[in-house]
């Protein structure tokens, strides 16, 4: 199920393009036939904004929205699916994509061998540990790195989309600004540790620690105007220069995120993610399988008339010589393949078999019964005392019909037919 969520989008333009994806949980394909509306504000019951209501057609939906807070409401879903909770999102002119998720950061001081000379392996992770930790890099080099992983000091970070404007504001002494700063950092991380898009690690035969170290140095070159060549070997310097001067294309779906601490004593952090920018994802799960499995049920009967038993599949044939003042007729039914714990109307008909083979109804008995835990068991149907003719043959027919509809005939998750046995 998709629980209620809140997102903040931002743009440096008056309007921003927002994309809505509605997938089916099992196949992860776009769902068709769900209806939506977008309302202004946070009240899902509000009227839709003009033009912002639609029925999903299996494709991602796009809208350009002005600054403000909106709520995406799934009004209805195709049969067999659970309706998703509303999602509130905000379009702001001053940042980018911001979720309400909080993050914690920590530094691993001894992850790499001493000879790699790198003790600032920094990671970010959501505070609830719902997702794996991610590699991040620090900027504003004069401030402190996050506490060590086992430290009692905890610093909480907000994740913000790293727009050119916001990044320039948060970098204390950047070498370049605006789009050039953002794109330079995206390219450094894309080509650096751990993505290694250009194969620099192998080209210069770097260890994991060395490669991560020069990636951090390349970040500082752009964010802090600090090239920092001290204590680097020649191959590390050569690798760093290639990382800084690379001009390869950056994937369109690679976005920069900034992580800003709740304590300004600590450095800001940055990392990248491959996502579709400004995409709200909504997922619909299928209803649990509440449709009962209905088999071909069977009734096997044993009729007792004046102490004489007769039985066969769905019928019982009885003959006797002495009717006295009438005989007691009782039908015992063994059933299988019914739906457990469901109620059925059980009907039995006592029929006289004439010499020509035709049937004459003698008595009918109907009662409500309940199937056992496993859909099998025994019922009794008592016809009482019947005036039967000596030497004649009689047959009993039974029919069990469920009180409720138990069968989904057209596979639309609606029970529309009773089970009849």
Automatic annotation (TrEMBL):
Domain of life: Bacteria
Pfam families linked to this entry: SpaA, TED, TQ
SpaA-like prealbumin fold domain location: 18-97
Domain T-Q ester bond containing per the UniProt entry, residue ranges: 298-409
Domain Thioester residue range list: 135-248
UniProt-listed NCBIfam families: surf_Nterm_1, TQXA_dom, VaFE_rpt
Name of the protein described by the UniProt record: Thioester-forming surface-anchored protein
Lineage, highest ranks first: Bacteria, Bacillati, Bacillota, Clostridia, Eubacteriales
């Amino acid at each position: 199920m998709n629980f209620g969520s809140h997102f903040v989008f931002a743009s440096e333009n008056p309007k921003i393009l927002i994309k809505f994806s509605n997938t089916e949980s099992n196949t992860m394909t776009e769902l068709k036939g769900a209806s939506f509306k977008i309302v202004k504000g946070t009240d899902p019951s509000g009227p839709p904004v003009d033009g912002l209501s639609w029925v999903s057609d299996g494709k991602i939906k796009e809208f350009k929205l002005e600054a403000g807070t909106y709520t995406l409401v799934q009004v209805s879903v195709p049969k067999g699916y659970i309706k998703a909770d509303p999602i509130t999102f905000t379009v702001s002119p001053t940042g980018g994509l911001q979720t309400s998720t909080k993050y914690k950061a920590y530094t691993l001081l001894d992850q790499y061998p001493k000879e790699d000379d790198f003790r600032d392996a920094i990671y970010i992770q959501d505070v609830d540990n719902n997702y794996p930790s991610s590699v991040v890099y620090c900027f504003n080099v004069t401030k402190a790195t996050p506490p060590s992983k086992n430290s009692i000091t905890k610093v909480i970070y907000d994740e913000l989309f790293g727009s050119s404007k916001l990044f320039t504001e948060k970098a204390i002494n950047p070498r370049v600004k605006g789009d050039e700063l953002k794109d330079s950092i995206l390219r450094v991380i894309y080509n650096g540790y751990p993505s290694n898009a250009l194969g620099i690690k192998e080209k210069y035969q770097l260890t994991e620690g060395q490669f991560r170290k020069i990636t951090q140095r390349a970040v500082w070159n752009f964010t802090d105007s600090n090239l920092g060549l001290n204590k680097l070997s020649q191959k590390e310097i050569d690798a760093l220069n290639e990382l800084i001067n690379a001009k390869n294309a950056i994937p369109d779906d690679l976005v920069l995120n900034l992580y800003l601490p709740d304590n300004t004593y600590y450095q800001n952090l940055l990392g990248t993610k491959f996502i579709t920018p400004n995409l709200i994802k909504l997922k619909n799960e299928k209803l649990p399988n509440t449709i009962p499995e209905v088999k071909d049920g069977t009734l096997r009967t044993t009729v007792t008339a004046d102490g004489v038993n007769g039985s066969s599949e769905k019928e019982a044939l009885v003959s006797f010589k002495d009717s006295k003042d009438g005989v007691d007729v009782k039908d015992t039914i063994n059933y299988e393949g019914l739906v457990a714990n469901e109620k059925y109307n059980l009907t039995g008909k006592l029929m006289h078999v004439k010499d020509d083979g035709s049937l004459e109804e003698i008595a009918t008995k109907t009662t409500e019964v309940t199937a056992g835990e496993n859909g099998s068991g025994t019922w009794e149907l008592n016809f009482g005392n019947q005036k039967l003719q000596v030497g004649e043959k009689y047959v009993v027919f039974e029919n069990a019909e469920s009180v409720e509809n138990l069968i989904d005939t057209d596979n639309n998750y609606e029970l529309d037919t009773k089970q009849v046995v």
